[in-house]
Amino acid sequence: MYALDTQAARKADTAGATIKELGKYVGEFTQAVDIKTTKGGRGVSLGFKSNGGQKANLAIYTTGANGDKYQGFDTLMAILTCMKLRGIKPVDGQYLKYDFESKQEVKEAGKVFPELVGPIGVLLETEDYEKQDGSVGTRMVIKNVFDPATEFTASEILDKKTKP
Predict the structure, then answer these.
(1) Are 61 and 37 in contact (CB under 8 A)?
(2) pLDDT value at position 1?
(3) pLDDT above 70: residue 2
(4) Is the model's pLDDT at 4 over the cut of 70?
(5) 27 vs 146: CA distance, rounded Å
(6) Residues 6+ apart with CB under 8 A from 128
(7) E strand segments, the chain
(8) How far is CA 56 from the centre of its chain?
(9) Percentage of residues in the chain with pLDDT exceeding 90?
């Protein structure tokens, strides 16, 4: 009645691997992609994988089309601080993107930030948003970030605190 489908078996390993619970996670950004919104805004799309193997795709919108800075800009600056980076510039590269037609991740060419790939701690919370079909969805968003080695937040690092 059932023949072994190895692809389906592999999917079972990752079905519960999506982060859906708010909270504190230590892991790494696995990719960072320069993104532009349909209205001309800018941001960074981040792939995150926790040390427990859970994954999340996180988007930070940094500026509007008119150059106004969003709260995501502050979050990106906190990430740079916690990762001990002075600045980042996008370069040509490849990143993984989920293809809804083939139902798998595929490599795509684009502008990426290789300096953002590495260890990080994140505090995640949920946010409701309106989907293209008008229904409401829920996604994970970054509430705060911290250095995973010291658990210091950006302001604690900048203030040269000795305890998180």
Answers:
(1) yes
(2) 34
(3) no
(4) no
(5) 11
(6) 136, 137, 138
(7) 23-36, 42-50, 55-63, 91-99, 104-112, 118-130, 136-146
(8) 6
(9) 74
Tokens of 97: 């993107």
Alpha helices in 65-141 (DSSP H): 71-82
> Rounded to an integer, what distance in angstroms lies between the CA atom of residue 48 and that of residue 58?
7
Q: What is the pLDDT of residues 94-145, one digit of tens each?
A: 999 988 888 888 999 999 999 999 999 999 999 998 888 999 988 999 999 9
Which amino acid is it at 38?
A: T
Cα 112 → chain centroid: 13
| Predicted local confidence at residue 19, as pLDDT | 86
Residue 34 structure tokens? 């320069």
For CA atoms 19, 89, 83, 40, the dihedral sign is negative
For 150, the token pair is: 């010291």
What are 64's two structure tokens? 């509007």
C-alpha distances (whole Å) from 61 to each of 11, 107, 163 are: 30, 23, 31
Q: Are 88 and 81 within 8 A, CB to CB?
A: no
β partners of residue 43: 35, 61
Q: What angle do CA 11, 57, 110 make, to 5 degrees?
A: 105
Q: What pTM, to 2 d.p., does this model score?
A: 0.86
